Hints:
By secondary structure, the chain is of the alpha+beta class. The chain is built from eleven helices and 16 strands. Strands 4, 5, 8, 9, 10, 13 and 14 form a seven-stranded antiparallel sheet that branches. Strands 11-12-16-15 form a four-stranded antiparallel sheet, with no helix packed on it. Strands 3-6-7 form a three-stranded antiparallel sheet, with no helix packed on it. Zinc ion binds next to loops.
Amino acid sequence: MIGNIPPHLRSRISTIQLVALCIEKYFNHTEFYGPVVSDLRDLETGGVLIPSVGIVKGSLVCIVRDNLGSHGLGGFVEQFSSSLYFCRFCLVNRSDFHKEGGELVSFQRRTIDSYNAALDYLKATKKKVYHGVKFNSIFNELNYYHVCNGLPPCLAHDLNEGVIAYDMKIFIDYFVEKEWKSLFPSVPLRPKAYYLTHYCELIEAFGPLIGVFTLRFESKHTFFKRCIRGSRNFKTPTLSLSVTHELFQAYRRSGVDKHFKLNVKGDSEFFMHSYFVEIQNGISAMKLPSAVSECVSVELLGTLYQKGDVVVIRQATYQCAVEMGRIIVVLFDNKDCVYLLLEKLPTEFVPHLRVYEIGCRISYKYIPVADLLSEQSLHVYPSGPHLYVKLHYGLVCDTLD
Length: 401
Ligand SMILES: [Zn+2]
């Protein structure tokens, strides 16, 4: 996947390309990854010629896999339940991790030097593993990539299939049983719980981790699963799959898979006089362009804005005095600009639920989508007499202290 593609297109399956396929029983690290690394080296040094653009060079930023896959590719140990050094990010060892408070201690970060020192030690002593390193990954032959800083974590595997499913259950069961008397249960945590301590620095390195999780690639796999079931070819499956995939990509590139900045649903002419005087006055004051139309919903750069959803207008400081508005009219012009008429709502943050409770209309507000604090469009969840909205991600003010 090319990292320069804008985020709303990066998550589409068709922007994920096929590099190589291999039958598992024939897999060999050097034989399989060797040609891939060689191609990447050509891209780093020679680049590719793109007509009307010129020579474009590129390099590998990161490789996205689950923990087992990342360790196998990076030359790290693959036994998480028994290995002494189980972390690919640092040199924590199992006994220190299981000491009281060990899950909160930070250990020496792995570096290219520490990785190479481990390889030297393996060579000199003929040992099989040292400091969790088993062999030198062929990807380290690249000029701008090293497995020590190019194997990001996967949120879905660490949290949804790990800490939330396993460790959180232990805590909740324990607290229910002990009636919240003591702080930590004595059951040892699994390595995934320790990986979370690195998330801070990993977010700094890779950006929001949702951008490097494996789930989009897992969705891509469904294409191949469907094809192999349909083809019933078990003699040369990799050949049929790669040919079918490339034909499908060619079909999508032929124009059927065109993505527009703006997708409008249920558009109609905008009659300002069909609204209350209060709304009309506000819309006149907004100085809208003359060729403006109304619609039921609009998808702008992958985000759907529709009547009834809530958007964030601004906030004073982090989670304080957050101004939100419920969409009541959606307008757009011929320059792909979207304007919203909102009911401005009071909000109150509910810390233990991590949601905002919204109140009744204070006033009307007219705003171009470009002026919103965040592009998020939020669903409203009713619970008894209360209405709640939950942010997809945190809001940061321009000025951080
Ligand atoms: Zn670590």
